[in-house]
Amino acid sequence: MSDTAAVAEADALVAEATGEASGTAEGEPKFTLELNQDQKDIREWVHGFAEGVVRPAAEEWDEREETPWPVIQEAAKIGLYSFEALGQFWADETGLTLPIANEELFWGDAGIGMAIMGTSLAVAAIFGQGTPEQMGEWIPRCFGSADDPKVAAFCSSEPDAGSDVSAIRTTAKYDEAKDEWVINGQKAWATNGGIADVHVVIASVDRELGSRGHAAFVIPPGTKGCEQGAKVKKHGLRASHTADVHLDDCRVPGACLLGGKEKLDERLARVREGKKAKSQAAMQTFEASRPTVGAQALGIARAAYEYALDYAKERQQFGKAIIENQAIAFTLADMKLEIDAARLLVWRAAWMGRNGHKFENAEGSMSKLKAGEVAVWSTERAIQILGGNGYTREFPVERMHRDAKIYTIFEGTSEIQRLVISRAISGVHVK
Ligand SMILES: Cc1cc2nc3c(=O)[nH]c(=O)nc-3n(C[C@H](O)[C@H](O)[C@H](O)COP(=O)(O)OP(=O)(O)OC[C@H]3O[C@@H](n4cnc5c(N)ncnc54)[C@H](O)[C@@H]3O)c2cc1C
To answer: Which ligand 1 atom is the nearest neighbour of the CA of 164?
Structure first.
């Protein structure tokens, strides 16, 4: 794609996102839980890929603990791993397509799902904070091409800055003579860190301002001084690569500051004058992505529930199927209930986010919190329903339980979500 075409595409995405597109100009789309044909088609398409390609590969890549490049390539070949697909999901003005696609993919397998969707956090940062030119230049490069797919990484967390994003120590200093930013620091836990072509890094440009002095930078492929550190061996999501990223005198062109220097200077000036800053670089990305992350957790929960339901109908003990015992049947009823309740929270937050409704009561956090906890609980219950088999690697619910656990930790732990919700509903600075 030419630069001009890419910029035009990005402009169209922005217009969609801000409601300038003709579809939304006539009035807000009515909220309905009846999926339209496009949504159903996309759900079926992603489900088919999850069932036919992702599931059969899940166990192998979990054991190998490596990025499943052949599966990513398959996804790229059918157009599922591409910025066009993400743009199409995002363009749905009801906001539901993105969570629907994520739920289906992660129903297939969460480790591979994250290997495919991990790129989208970096894309969300570029989309949320970049200029149209930056979007046009960098978003396609996050994906590469169908023949040569690439991944992207979003690097906010550091060894001493996890939940406390304001503690970020990575610095970015402007070298005016060369119009370059010089970035130094160490990032921790980055999904696709070091193997990504495009890294989006959150750095402090003014430590005294805490998180209000943060800015987001694109590190172009092959930039000197941006290296992978230790790769993390994990409990779950093992097909997804997680690693430290070291930034040592890493120089990037001035144009790599997302949003541009003028906008940053204006924002910093406002903060220094004691006025409220409109946004914080990392938090903006997390807030927007929470319903999508919740949908991923839902996919895992649903997969475990469906597996346990089938198993309970088959498995005979005391001369009858174990589902004939209320203890098992009621557990399955509760699993279904909790999963459906979580989905409603996810869809509500996705709809609100897409239609520009402010999360007055931290609805994005609610959706991620509920879905993450439901995923952990449901997968644990699924193991219980499978008994000894559930505890073995011969049956997938064991992997699903390991995968689910991360959803109460990353993108804001459950405690942090509760903090955000309690502050939002009370107006009190709960600690
Ligand atoms: C597999 C994986 C992938 C990841 N991918 C990325 C990525 O792509 N990019 C990225 O930037 N980061 C990523 N992370 C990092 C992730 O976002 C952090 O692990 C998470 O934010 C929690 O930070 P922490 O691990 O430092 O825990 P800590 O912040 O040290 O928290 C430890 C415990 O203390 C609790 N706690 C902390 N503060 C409070 C408080 N004020 N009130 C109550 N309880 C509190 C927490 O809830 C938690 O239970 C990833 C992590 C993992 C494991």
So the answer is: 29
Give ligand 1 pocket residues (Cβ under 6 A): 121, 154-157, 162-163, 189-191, 234, 237, 242, 406, 409-411, 413, 415-416, 419
Other CB atoms within 10 Å distance of the CB of residue 294:
32
- Can you tell me which atom of ligand 1 is nearest the CA of 157? 11
- 411 is known as an active-site residue: yes
Angle, helices 119-129 vs 281-314, to 10°: value is 150
284 pLDDT band (50/70/90 cuts)? low
Q: What percent of the chain has pLDDT over 70?
A: 90
Q: Which of 170, 189, 290 to mutate to test the pocket of ligand 1 (most atoms within 8 A of CB)?
A: 189
Which position has the token pair 């699993």? 335
Residue 38 Cα, ligand 1 centroid: separation in angstroms?
A: 36
Q: Name the pLDDT band for 24 (thresholds 50, 70, 90).
A: very low
User: What distance in angstroms lies between residue 234's CA and the mean position of ligand 1's atoms?
Assistant: 14
Copy the structure tokens of residue 310.
Answer: 């089938």
**Global pTM value:** 0.93
Decide if pLDDT at 162 tops 60: yes
Q: H or E segment at 242?
A: strand 242-253
Lowest mean pLDDT among 13-22, 33-42, 67-76, 243-252: 13-22
Catalytic residue, candidates 74, 380, 411, 415: 411
Neighbours of 22 (CB within 10 A): 7
Of 201, 247, 410, which is best to mutate to test ligand 1, by the most ligand atoms within 8 angstroms of its C-beta? Answer: 410
CA–CA distance, 241 with 420 (Å, rounded to integer)? 29
Angle at 407 between CA 93 and CA 95, to 5 degrees: 5
Whether residue 2 is predicted with pLDDT greater than 50 in this model: the reply is no
pLDDT grade for 356, boundaries at 50, 70 and 90:
confident
Please give the distance, rounded to the nearest whole angstrom, from the Cα atom of residue 196 to the centre of ligand 1. 21
Q: Is the pLDDT of residue 42 over 80?
A: yes
